[in-house]
Design brief:
About 30% of the residues lie in helices and about 20% in strands. It has helices spanning about 65-80, 105-120, 125-130, 170-185; strands at about 30, 35, 50, 55-60, 85-90, 95-100, 150-155, 160-165. It is globular and about 35 Å long.
Length: about 190
């Protein structure tokens, strides 16, 4: 019986829901939570658009959040580190989180919390750790993690996003990989 067909005495059947929808071509070939491995995407990282005014083609050089996430993860993989990477928006909402192959289970939420902390204070979490001496109760704010590895992304001095990396043997390495993600975003 097709979906939506009414049966006397019963509510119409609902269409099956997809478990997850991913519309991020840059994630192709990566493990994504709840999705498994995505097939390679033929479009690549840059979109081609037509300029109808003069009929020329232009290749967009705007990097996406996915490109930043990939840059951070690739940087860690070059050093044979197994990490998770998270990107949050200005409000601390998670945009994407990727767990690299072999990354520990604690790295996933830690990356999100580092990104949240960095964007909340518009400062690298390694710097915020130093500030804890003056204000130790800051660490009690829910959702924050005061360990190196979170870096804000700023535009004109204002935070617009945060990138967090967790899972490397030291926070300094986590922060190095997060900086690679920021570099991909800001060029």
């Amino acid at each position: 019986m097709p979906f939506g067909t009414a049966v006397p005495g019963q509510a119409p059947a609902a269409a099956p829901r997809a478990e997850a929808t991913v519309r991020r071509p840059a994630l192709a070939g990566r493990r994504v939570r709840g999705v498994g491995r995505l097939p390679p995407h033929p479009a690549g990282r840059a979109a081609v658009t037509a300029d109808t005014a003069d009929r020329n083609l232009q290749q967009s050089t705007h990097l996406t959040v996915d490109a930043a996430t990939r840059a951070a993860l690739d940087s860690a993989e070059k050093d044979n580190q197994r990490v998770s990477v998270a990107v949050v928006d200005r409000n601390g909402n998670t945009l994407v989180t990727l767990r690299g192959n072999g990354a520990g289970p604690q790295s996933y939420p830690s990356a999100e919390e580092k990104a949240f902390t960095a964007v909340s204070w518009n400062a690298p979490t390694s710097e915020l750790v130093k500030r804890l001496e003056q204000n130790p109760t800051s660490k009690d704010i829910p959702g924050t993690l005061f360990l190196a590895g979170g870096v804000p992304v700023s535009a004109k001095g204002a935070p617009v996003a945060g990138i967090g990396v967790a899972g490397a043997p030291s926070g300094d390495l986590d922060e190095k990989y997060a900086e690679a993600g920021v570099a991909a975003l800001v060029g």
